[in-house]
Amino acid sequence: MKKSTLFLKNLLFLTALLLFNSAFSQSSLSGKVTDDKGNVVSGANVSVAKKATTTDADGNYAISGLSDGATTVTVSYIGMKTSKKEVVISGATTANVQLEQEATSLEEVVVTGVINPRSKLQSSVSISSVSVAQIEQGAPRATAELFRMLPGIKSESTGGEGNANITVRGIPIASGGAKFLQLHEDGMPVMQFGDVAFGNADIFVRNDQTISKVEAIRGGSASTLASNSPAGIINFISKDGKKEGGSLMQSIGVDFGSNRTDFEYGSPISETLRFHVGGFFRQGEGPRNAGYTANLGGQFKANMTKEFEKGYVRLYFKYLNDRSIGYLPMPVKVSGTNENPNWSSLSNFNILHDTPHSPYFLDNLTVGADGERRRSNLADGMRPVATSFGGEMKFDLGNDWKVEERFRQNYHNGRFVSPFPAEVATAASFATGFGVPNLTYANGPLAGQNFASNGLVMRIHTFDTEINNFNNFTNDMKLTKKFGNFDLTLGYYKAFQNINMSWLWNSYLLEVKGENAALLNAGPNSVNGLYAYGVPAWGNCCTRNYDANYEVTAPYVAGQLKVNDKFNVDMSLRFDSGKARGSYAGATQALNLDVNNNGTIEGPEASVSVVDNANRKPINYDYDYVSYSFGGNYLLTDNQSVFARYSRGGRANADRLLFGPNVLNDGSAVPGLSADMVNQAELGFKRKGQNSSIYATAFYANVSEQNWDFGGSGGGIRQIQRKYNSYGLELEGNYKVKNFSVNGSVTYTKAEIADDVVTPALNGNKPRRQADFIYNIVPAFKFGSNKQHNFGFSVIGTTKSYAQDDNKLVMPGYAYVNPFINVELTKGLSASLNVNNVFDTIGITEVEEGSITENTDNIVRARSINGRTTSLTIAYRF
């Protein structure tokens, strides 16, 4: 018995010893997770066998109690490609993991213009996103240039920092701005209307390092989930500090005047509270030869997020005070034929690098909206002063109810002032018109001397507008209830938009010269180059003031049904109603008004355009329209799907309705013109492979539009009232093999004027500036021991289009190349060199004239893309 007991004791002791040794002989795995730029990734999920953990604030992880041998380490983090790495465990093993950005992945969750956040693969809409890395590679010289990276969107970004003309899938640019498209910041509109004359929404937006990504939805549910945006939404989404870190970036223009500093930092304060702050400051002449500091100002943004057990609250703030030069058409030489023209620069004016702006043409005296004397500085250019604050919250109320609330208050004011060449002719021609023997220099080193009779002269109209009050407020609340596989959303949208603006335009004579152009006098008709307070060449059309307020109310309902694991459908309905109230006044002529108060009535003061406040007209009309959208998405396999959608959406007409007789004397609007409608159909295919993805969408659109535009005729303004049809195919994709990747998009659009009420002869023609193909391709290659460096280039191009709707003068197709290289100097510190338009390609985007005299030299007024500009950036990320 004693032997048995002793045997059992020894056996138990031996077993315990073996278990003890076994426990201490198990191995561990640790390491660090970083992104493709070497920044640590905190909060990444790391799993090995059946054990898992997350990385700490320094990107480190550790898992113990692992058995020796080969195993797989899986690391995932939202917005990045999941990494699976084979590791052989032996004792204390180290395995560092580098994650790559997943900017174009169809698994990425989208939030813009959709009922509920879904992956791209599961969404029945066309939506794309641009990451911070892609923006840095593209090195846009202005926010408007960023839009060129988005498929289906044609952005004429030749106006400078803002004032871009933006069209989507053939929905036309009949006038200017982005009439059927809205720009959002963090899901809320910057302006309720995207084409306010000289107050486009993009003037009040800046791209900087506080942006986490830019999302864009084309067509689809944008019709019903936002007002006045049937063509789509471009949404700037800010970083929120969920991951601790920041950056400091210094950029300089190597061959042009630019100096810019960006900064941003965000961090969790506690487990439930986090913040992010950032902004930029810049100054410089800009990409063209202005002769003075034309870009000066900056932006500051901040947000804070508080998480609760069942939701979160986020508050944010933005202050923008920036001065950026605004480019308008410039004199260009054209020869050849209308169908096959040759575009080139004049001998003393380079279309790629020059501008009519000049240090000799800055001060501008006008009569203000209330009769006061007012001075403007042409160096102000596009001068937004914008203060914004807002917030959002989202909570789970229990029993499958959720509530989401967003609001934003924008305080917008500022100025838009830039020289517009209303006419280009010889000095002799102008001298004859003014009844003087010759023109003389009004200022500059040759002041008082005669100007050569065969020299070229521009009749300048100063597009000088005062943005008195563009304040707007938006509130969007929605309640969601889940009933099994069906999600119901009830929403209520309320918004107010002020449009208080004064147009105070003068007329000058300016020599055609690329740098330091001087003003010219026409004898006693002129004073310091000014020959008119107003624009008599356009019938003194344009001095005006309007003070309008627009109230928008839009309840909406949306439903989303998951039929099964592969098929989901959604539908939405929105009812927009609006009230327009206020007053507006046009121009009247005041005779013998001593504007400069020198006690003498000089030539320009004999007849002065002033705002006709004695005959102000009321604005007093209501409008309403119904929008709807329905679509479905079907998963063919785990990595590919198809979708179909039909939508009808509206866009209310705002200030541009006031330009002509469409508002009657009692303030009511002519029936049928207060809102324009867009009908769209889409059929799409999406596929995500191991190293590639593709997104293809066929589309059709039918558009009705009422608008006004500057047509350069005797009256200066032309009316537009017509319908358009367009159809086409949009392709977006990416491919990666080892260290090489390529991203790109191409859009084919066939568009026509279907029914022109004002000019029926245009029926069947192609809308002006509408190309058959637009494309963007970006090949890149990573190199270095840790693949920490990369270089590549983007090619952005378009096929030919027509200058005007009569389809005579062709604007040739073009493609320009933008190389880039980024080198990591040390951990966290990198240098990048970007070149825009490296080959100095001329790319005409806008022409005032519709035809030329063939087989001779002509001078037209046009805008081209900027010539070659090179920037060097040093960035430190921590």
Automatic annotation (TrEMBL):
Task: State the membrane topology.
Answer: Multi-pass membrane protein
Q: Which InterPro entries match?
A: Beta-barrel_TonB, Beta-barrel_TonB_sf, CarboxyPept-like_regulatory, Plug_dom, Plug_dom_sf, TonB-dep_rcpt-like
Keywords, A to Z, come to: Cell outer membrane, Ion transport, Iron, Iron transport, Membrane, Receptor, Signal, TonB box, Transmembrane, Transmembrane beta strand, Transport
Keyword Transport applies? yes
Q: Domain TonB-dependent receptor-like beta-barrel, which positions? A: 357-838
Which domain of life does the protein's organism represent?
Bacteria
The signal sequence is 1-25
Where found, per UniProt? Cell outer membrane
Residues covered by the TonB-dependent receptor plug domain: 121-233
Instruction: Return the Pfam families for the record.
Output: CarbopepD_reg_2, Plug, TonB_dep_Rec_b-barrel
Q: Which family does it belong to?
A: Belongs to the TonB-dependent receptor family.
Q: Which PANTHER family match?
A: CATECHOLATE SIDEROPHORE RECEPTOR FIU, FERRICHROME IRON RECEPTOR-RELATED
What is this protein's name?
TonB-dependent receptor
- Protein source organism: Flavobacterium cheonanense
